[in-house]
């Protein structure tokens, strides 16, 4: 029987924050293999992502708020074993998609472990940690979802969209770390947000997000899909409104860079981005 701490620390709800890349990729696939698209959704959001969360919590033994949990419980050995079972299950199910998809899943799991494992601990290095997150949660995830969801299992993936996926992740990820500077420092971890500082984090995020939207604009305009880009930008507009409002508060008092405001930012960004790409996916049905 699963312990309450294990269920909490798998953080299934956190998969919602990573859903935009999946929706983005599926919305761009010319001909979708629906069965495989659904299976990929399950593999990523109910196995790989939660397992990664659980393993990270097992390594960290967090006592302060972490993504979506204000009062994390202490992990037990059960969490470690459950994460292993989930990973193995994900790899086995991936074989039903394709060998390339399976390779990507194995690489994602390995990168996730290298990020958290005390013996390697990429997360304690601000640049390397940031790079590994945005590459695998962005470009690699886009690649495997696009490839796996396509009817012909194409390996010809739009490079601009892979870059945009990484930049979208890169434009939000530092904000998820902004309230953890002191807790991370005690654990010997220097995140990209801690390296940049409170104000620097907001400036950096604004630049990366602008670059992400610029790449998306070029991609949609290149395919004569201007209307889709404008819809995307409009639905995501509330993100910018909250972002600049929050930045103004932090500029006056860094105490506003707290867990509550971070979770509000994460939730708003996830809802708007998911809604934007889901709308584009539905749009396909009317073309």
UniProtKB/TrEMBL annotation:
Keywords: Membrane, Transmembrane, Transmembrane helix. It comes from the Bacteria. It is found in: Membrane. It is a multi-pass membrane protein. The chain crosses the membrane at residues 12-32, 38-58, 79-111, 127-145, 157-176, 196-222, 229-247, 267-286. InterPro entries: UbiA_prenyltransferase. Pfam families: UbiA. This is Prenyltransferase.
């Amino acid at each position: 029987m699963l312990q309450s701490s294990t269920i909490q620390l798998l953080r299934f709800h956190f998969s919602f924050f990573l859903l935009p890349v999946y929706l983005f990729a599926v919305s761009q696939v010319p001909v979708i293999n629906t069965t495989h698209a659904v299976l990929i959704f399950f593999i990523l959001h109910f196995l790989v992502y939660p397992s990664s969360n659980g393993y990270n919590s097992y390594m960290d033994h967090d006592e302060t708020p972490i993504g979506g949990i204000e009062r994390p419980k202490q992990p037990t050995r059960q969490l470690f074993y459950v994460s292993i079972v989930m990973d193995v299950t994900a790899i086995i199910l991936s074989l039903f998609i394709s060998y390339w998809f399976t390779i990507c899943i194995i690489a994602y799991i390995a990168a996730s472990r290298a990020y958290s494992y005390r013996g390697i601990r990429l997360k304690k290095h601000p640049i390397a940690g940031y790079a590994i997150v945005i590459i695998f949660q962005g470009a690699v995830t886009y690649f495997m979802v696009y490839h796996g969801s396509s009817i012909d299992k194409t390996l010809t993936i739009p490079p601009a969209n892979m870059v945009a996926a990484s930049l979208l992740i890169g434009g939000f990820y530092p904000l998820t770390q902004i309230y953890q500077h002191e807790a991370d420092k005690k654990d010997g971890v220097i995140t990209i947000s801690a390296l940049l500082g409170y104000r620097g984090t907001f400036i950096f995020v604004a630049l990366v997000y602008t670059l992400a939207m610029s790449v998306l604009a070029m991609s949609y305009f290149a395919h004569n899909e201007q209307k889709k880009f404008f819809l995307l930008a409009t639905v995501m507009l509330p993100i910018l409104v909250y972002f600049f409002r929050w930045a103004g508060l932090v500029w006056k008092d860094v105490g506003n860079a707290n867990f509550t405001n971070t979770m509000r930012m994460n939730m708003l960004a996830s809802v708007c981005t998911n809604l934007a790409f889901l709308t584009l996916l539905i749009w396909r049905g009317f073309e």
